[in-house]
Write a structure and sequence with these properties.
It catalyses: alpha-D-glucose 6-phosphate = beta-D-glucose 6-phosphate. A hairpin with a 4-residue loop joins strand 16 and strand 17. By secondary structure, this protein is mainly beta. The chain contains 4 helices and 20 strands. The longest helix has 7 residues, at 255-261. 7% of the residues lie in helices and 39% in strands. It has a single domain, classed as Beta-galactosidase, Chain A, domain 5 (Distorted Sandwich), CATH 2.70.98. Bound molecules: 6-O-phosphono-beta-D-glucopyranose. The site of 6-O-phosphono-beta-D-glucopyranose has 10 residues, from strand 18 and strand 19.
Length: 320
């Protein structure tokens, strides 16, 4: 049945405009009022709001949005190197490159109900070739679903013409906004092995039945399930992270000392953020010329009572 004209809501699903310091950004909007913002600098999501306009991602108030520094918060992309696991700069270089809008992406099997999405592309440059001697095409689709879910899909193709394969590690370095880190639990990683970045990447096995936070945490959980839940007890909100093609998951909170040491991070801000990152770290991906890899992360935010009527993380994990 057609809606009476006065009730029809016109939403501009995709809008290119200027953000902080005149940097280009794309705003994605959905009819119920949720939105997301993506900077072409870094190909980086910097905002994800629910239908009440509440911000779900953390961006530091000290982040200066000034190239060549990466933006502190949102969802930086780590490629072709996660952390300092290789000769490149920390987390690779694409988080401080200017991406372009890809107006003619190759076909994508996707739901036709999604109208709020943008395709970005980054290709090798002659400058980058000097530090990472490979030709590549990195296509990134960012979609805000009608229900407010945020999906990121990366397609990376080896474009080398010299017959050489390349290898890389990768992460969607997602900064979730939380009310109080000491009231947060992460479910879905229990009993798994992890590499502890604070102990020379020594391997341990998670013993607790959930991860909670009372000091600095910097771990790479290996071969995790595809679904992880982050429970913000105080806000009664659960983030559900689903991933595909990304076997590992990084969990990071700098806590007070490291927070003070980071110039683009407020001293107290560690209380209000938690990074949980769909990643591929332990076993790098190798692509031969012409081959393509895909890695996907989908995040949603639901009231913690939505699944279970109570704060039972296991039940929260089962729903959806
Ligand atoms: O300060 P950066 O380069 O953005 O990195 C932040 C953190 O990113 C995390 O993913 C790493 O595990 C940490 O070791 C690192 O400190």
């Amino acid at each position: 049945m057609a809606m009476p004209p006065e009730r029809r809501v016109e939403v501009k699903h995709v809008e290119l405009c200027k953000g902080v310091n005149g940097l280009d950004k794309v705003v994605l909007r959905e009819v119920r009022g949720c939105s997301a913002e993506v900077y072409l600098y870094g190909g980086q999501v910097t905002s994800w709001k629910n239908e009440h306009g509440e911000e779900l991602l953390f961006v530091s108030s000290k982040s200066n949005f000034k190239p060549p520094k990466p933006i502190r918060g949102g969802i930086p992309i780590c490629f072709p190197q996660f952390s300092n696991l290789g000769p490149l700069e920390q987390h690779g270089f694409v988080r401080n490159r200017f991406w372009s809008i890809d107006h003619d992406p190759p076909p994508f099997a996707t739901s036709t109900s999604n109208k709020a999405f943008v395709d970005l592309i980054l290709k090798h440059s002659e400058e980058d070739f000097k530090i990472w001697p490979h030709r590549y095409e990195f296509r990134l689709r960012i979609t805000l679903g009608p229900g407010g879910d945020l999906m990121l899909t990366s397609r990376i193709r080896n474009m080398n013409t010299d017959g050489k394969p390349f290898s890389f590690t990768f992460a969607y370095h997602t900064y979730f906004a939380v009310t109080d880190i000491s009231e947060v639990r992460v479910e879905g990683l229990e009993t798994l092995d992890y590499l502890d970045n604070l102990k020379n990447r020594e391997r341990f096995t998670e013993q607790g039945d959930a991860i909670t936070f009372e000091s600095e945490v910097d771990r790479i959980y290996l071969s995790t399930p595809t679904k992880i839940a982050i429970l913000d007890h105080e806000r009664k909100r659960t983030f559900v992270l689903r991933k595909d093609g990304l076997p590992d998951a990084v969990v990071w909170n700098p806590w007070d000392k490291k927070a003070k040491a980071m110039p683009d991070f407020g001293d107290e801000e560690y209380k209000h953020m938690l990074c949980v990152e769909a990643a591929c770290v332990e076993k790098p991906i190798t692509l031969k010329p012409g081959e393509e890899w895909r890695g996907r992360q989908e995040i949603s935010a639901v009231p913690s009572s939505y699944c279970s009527g109570q704060l039972d993380p296991r039940r929260a994990l089962q729903c959806g």
